[in-house]
Amino acid sequence: MSSPQSPALGLVLSSGAARGAAHAGVLRAVEEAGIEISVVTGASAGALIGGAWAAGVGSDRITARLLRAQWADFGSATITPRLGLLDTTPMVRGIEQMLGDLLIEELPTRFGAVVTELRSTTPRLVASGSLTTAVRASTAVPGLFPPVRLEEGGALCVDGAVLSPSPVWAAHRLGAERVIAVGFGRGNTRWRRWFESRPDHPAHGRHADLVVTIDTAGHSSWSAAGVPDLIDRGYLATREALESWH
Question: What is the pTM of this model?
Answer without folding.
Answer: 0.89
